[in-house]
Amino acid sequence: MAEFDFSNVKKTKLGKDDKSSKGEWDERIKELCGKINSNNDYITTSSCSGRILLMIEGFEKKPGLFLFVTHEKTSFDEIKKELIRISEKNKEMIYLKQEPCVLAVSCKTLEKAQKLVDKARNAGWKKSGITTSSKNHIVELFSTERMDVPIIKDGKILVDDDSLRIIIDEANSKLERTWGKIERLTSLIS
Question: What local confidence, expressed as pLDDT, does residue 20 receive?
């Protein structure tokens, strides 16, 4: 993409409203997105700092799929309260998930895209790669921390309190590790 075209695309993208369900950057990835967007060669197109959620099993995004979402660590009491509330109303299969940080970046050139992927991999974002077309180079950066635990089935909580505490501790630990990768990548971006 020519510099003039990329600059206009970037200006247009940065001028649009945030269309994410949250409506704004996650606080923990905001600095990284800001550093990337301050560079003339890049523009972020989507981001998430990682999250813990309770959701209905499904493969399509639809309203009501996410029953609880936090981009911060959570507690046994918070999740237990949500599980009780959800189990009284939902008979579907419900999962407790911890999802890693993700970031998509449009890049001015293929060379700039590769440079960003190399930095991300050095910072621990191992599932990272480039999707390219004749006009666009998108870097997709994924961390590897992830959990998917079936937690409610037919309105019944599937784990006892001791198991739930272990699951929550592990989800929180994985979320902290994903935040560390955000910090490392932020330090590598100039």
Answer: 53
